[in-house]
C-alpha cells in the first residue's frame, strides 16, 4: 500500500514493507517509484523481506511482478513462500505474477534484460517489480562497460514509468563501490547474519535513503512464520530534556533500606543493585516488585534465570498472593539465558512501558545480558536509552548486577560502566568466618541525602531486612 510519511516529507508517498517496524526504521516505508537494493549474503532473509512486501501491497488494479534471474527455480521459490502466514494463493497469477528470465539471460546475456522489462511494463503495467537476483547478472556480463550501459538503460526505463523496483542480490560491502546500480539506487538496505555460539543473530541496516530521514544503525530481526520480526534500535527519547519528573519518594520494599536512602528513592529513577552470588539481590528485587503491587503500581519483572513457575513459587513464599498480584498488574517476563538477544529484550521492555501503564520495572540480572551480548558497547547504548525512557515515562526501576573482580583487583569494568547510568547504586558485600555476614552500603544517590554507614543485611525465610 502507498502511504504518506509524516513530518516535512508528506508530499512523498511511500510503499509499506508490510512490516510496521521496518516502516518505522525507513521513516514510513520505501519511496514510491524508486529503485531499491536489498543486499545480503545467502540466507539473510532478502527473499522473505521482498515477498512480505509483495503480499502486503497486492490488491486489485496494477499487479506486482517477481522476476527470477539465475537464482532459485520458480517452482521452489513459490513452494517456500507458501509456508508463511502472509501467503495468499488467491493473489497468485493475478495480483502477484512470477516470471523467470533466467533462460533468456543465459542465452542472450545481460543486454536482454532491459528490452524484456520494457515489454513487460507495457503489457501489464506493474506497480512493483522485484528482480532476484540482480547481482547474478554481473556473472553473465562480458565486461564492466557492458554492465554499466545495461544499468544506465535500466535506470532510464524505470524512472520513466510509475513503478517501484527492488533489486535483490548477494552483494558484499565491497560491491557498493564497484557496481553501478548502487549509484542509481534511491535506497540500500543491508541484511546480515552473524553466528553467536549456538545461535545466529540477524541485522537490518539502512545504508542509503534519498530524500528522507531514517533510523540509523543495526536493527535486529528474526525470521518467523509471519515473516520478518524486526526490533528497531532503541534510541534515547528526544523529549528527555523537557519531561516533568515525579517529585515524590517511593519505597524499595526492603525493611530498613528506605531509611538509608532518605525515606526511599525518587520516583522515576533507576537503582543498580550490585553484589556477588548469593548476596540476596533477587530477594531484594522481589521486595521492590511486591512493594509496587502493594501500592497498585503495575510492575514488570524481567528475569533470565528462573521461569515464571519458579519465580511465582518464590514470590508466594515471601507472602505474595500471586493471582491477586497479577490482577493488580504484576507481569513476569522470562527469557531463557540460552536464547537471549539484547535487541528483543530491551525493545520488549520498551513496548511494555511506552503506553504509560507500567510504573515499576525490575531487570534481574543485567549481567546475563552482558554475557549474551555480542557487542557490549551496543548493550550499554541500549540500556542507557532504556533508562532514559524510564525517566521520561516516570518508571521507577531496579537493575541487579552480579559483581566481580578484574585481574588487577579493581571492580569489574562492566559494573563500572552500568553504574554511570543509574541514579542510585547499592552495593552488597559478603564476609564473615564462622557464619555468612552480608552488608549493604549506598555507593551513590543523586539529588538526595543518604546514610554513609555500612549496614548489616539479613536474608531469612521472611525476606530481606537492613538492620
What does this structure look like?
Helix 13 (342-353) packs parallel to helix 15. The strands form 4 sheets. The protein has a 9-stranded mixed sheet. Strands 17-16-18-19-15-20-21-22-23 form a 9-stranded mixed sheet, with helices on both faces. The termini are far apart. The protein is an alpha/beta fold. The chain folds into 2 domains: 2-231, P-loop containing nucleotide triphosphate hydrolases (Rossmann fold, 3-Layer(aba) Sandwich), CATH 3.40.50.300; 238-466, Rossmann fold, CATH 3.40.50. The chain has helices spanning 20-25, 46-57, 74-81, 102-108, 113-124, 144-159, 175-178, 181-184, 257-260, 281-294, 308-317, 322-327, 342-353, 366-372, 376-392, 413-420; strands at 2-4, 13-15, 30-31, 35-39, 64-68, 96-100, 128-132, 164-169, 187-196, 199-209, 219-224, 227-231, 249-250, 265-266, 270-275, 299-303, 330-334, 360-364, 396-402, 424-431, 437-445, 455-460, 463-466. The radius of gyration is 28 Å and the shape is elongated. Residues 3-10 and 405-410 have low confidence and may be disordered. Strand 22 (455-460) and strand 23 (463-466) form a beta hairpin. Helices cover 31% and strands 27% of the residues. It has 16 helices and 23 strands.
Structure in a nutshell:
With 467 residues, the chain is of the alpha/beta class.
Write the layout of secondary structure elements.
Blueprint: E1 2-4, E2 13-15, H1 20-25, E3 30-31, E4 35-39, H2 46-57, E5 64-68, H3 74-81, E6 96-100, H4 102-108, H5 113-124, E7 128-132, H6 144-159, E8 164-169, H7 175-178, H8 181-184, E9 187-196, E10 199-209, E11 219-224, E12 227-231, E13 249-250, H9 257-260, E14 265-266, E15 270-275, H10 281-294, E16 299-303, H11 308-317, H12 322-327, E17 330-334, H13 342-353, E18 360-364, H14 366-372, H15 376-392, E19 396-402, H16 413-420, E20 424-431, E21 437-445, E22 455-460, E23 463-466
Parallel strand pairs: 4-8, 4-9, 5-6, 5-7, 7-8, 15-19, 15-20, 16-17, 16-18, 18-19
Antiparallel strand pairs: 1-2, 2-3, 9-10, 10-11, 11-12, 13-14, 20-21, 21-22, 22-23
